[in-house]
């Protein structure tokens, strides 16, 4: 009788583990381009250049292929493929500069800076940094591997405002990401 009970317990444990292992990729530790492109629809893509140097290419994806500004329910993937090396400190500095350009008050972003310093790596040419916003939680992936998350709901939209706000410093890039221009 005890053996039967243990066998049933073992089988049900394996069944539970099987379900756990079949979670959607969005909750796993990896997020490859193939996974993104199979699950999401690309809205737009844009190359960011300074003078004649290409710095990065960014791509915006959602499940529907449409970006709904202010939607807390929408899952968003924002991927940046870098063509130049950039240090973590420079990434953070440029992020702050863009938030300042958008006239976002310091108290809205300063508390995120230590988290970004802990999560973001130094970037080399050929690397990618991807942000997955799902259920208002922000998860970062470096070259497809999970590197950390920011759980505060306001972070994802605050970060994306750098590129998607109507007041962005890069209006053409915004229009391309939103699929308004090809």
From TrEMBL:
Q: Where is the signal peptide?
A: 1-18
Question: In its UniProt entry, what is this protein called?
Answer: Chalcone isomerase family protein
Give one Pfam hit by family name. Answer: Chalcone_3
Alphabetized GO MF terms: isomerase activity
Record flagged with keyword Ribosomal protein: no
List where the protein spans the membrane: none
Stretches assigned to the Chalcone isomerase domain: 38-179
Q: What organism does the UniProt record list as the source?
A: Thalassotalea castellviae
Superkingdom of origin organism: Bacteria
Provide this UniProt record's keywords sorted from A to Z.
Isomerase, Signal
